[in-house]
TrEMBL record:
<dbReference type="Pfam" id="PF01470">
    <property type="entry name" value="Peptidase_C15"/>
</dbReference>
<dbReference type="InterPro" id="IPR029762">
    <property type="entry name" value="PGP-I_bact-type"/>
</dbReference>
<keyword id="KW-0788">Thiol protease</keyword>
<keyword id="KW-0378">Hydrolase</keyword>
<dbReference type="InterPro" id="IPR000816">
    <property type="entry name" value="Peptidase_C15"/>
</dbReference>
<dbReference type="InterPro" id="IPR036440">
    <property type="entry name" value="Peptidase_C15-like_sf"/>
</dbReference>
<dbReference type="GO" id="GO:0006508">
    <property type="term" value="P:proteolysis"/>
</dbReference>
<keyword id="KW-0963">Cytoplasm</keyword>
<dbReference type="InterPro" id="IPR033694">
    <property type="entry name" value="PGPEP1_Cys_AS"/>
</dbReference>
<comment type="similarity">
    <text>Belongs to the peptidase C15 family.</text>
</comment>
<dbReference type="InterPro" id="IPR016125">
    <property type="entry name" value="Peptidase_C15-like"/>
</dbReference>
<protein>
    <recommendedName>
        <fullName>Pyrrolidone-carboxylate peptidase</fullName>
        <ecNumber>3.4.19.3</ecNumber>
    </recommendedName>
</protein>
<keyword id="KW-0645">Protease</keyword>
<dbReference type="GO" id="GO:0016920">
    <property type="term" value="F:pyroglutamyl-peptidase activity"/>
</dbReference>
<dbReference type="GO" id="GO:0005829">
    <property type="term" value="C:cytosol"/>
</dbReference>
<comment type="function">
    <text>Removes 5-oxoproline from various penultimate amino acid residues except L-proline.</text>
</comment>
Amino acid sequence: MKRVLLTGFEPFAGASLNPSEQIVNALKARQIEGVELHTAVLPVVFTESSELLRHLIKLHNPDVVICLGQAEGRSEVSFERVAINLDDARLADNAGRTVTDQPIVEDGPEAKFTTLPVKEMVAAVRAEGIAAGLSTTAGTFVCNHIFYAMQHALAGTSVLSGFIHVPLMAEQAADFAGLPTMTLDQQVRAIEIAIRVAAEVWSA
Ligand code: PCA
């Protein structure tokens, strides 16, 4: 059994839904062959989110960590390649704090790459007829923050870890007029496939 830690985020910026939370809740109830799945929903708060993630990694000792977040405006499931050492929020986090121009890790490297097999994941998701692609920016808000903090914390270990941004869901269309959406069912399937690919690559 491969131990996989999967996280999503609570809604933020006044929204009532976050697809990443819905995906985590849907997969929590599902059996994935060969996978012992641990899930959590993180607060959209700069420091607390990365502290909680580090705590969960210690607690579950996972082989694979996949963090999910919403990216309004994206039309495909976006496999992030790189996290940068910069917090620069254009909006307040859920604790009301706006962090600007701050390094995430003082004197840390400028960037850290994903260790997930993202090209294999994109190919496997596309093979199921679901829109997926690589992305080279996770932004500078809380998603990039936990992505960088995680890659820094897990550097030099055998744990495969990375971040996937997901599109808005149809249920959010009224709040985000004109932006692309993807059904929750497709998003859940995409992340399930990504977990399977990571577990297979880890075993190989
Ligand atoms: N998306 C935000 C933070 C939480 C989320 O789901 C981001 O892209 O930073």
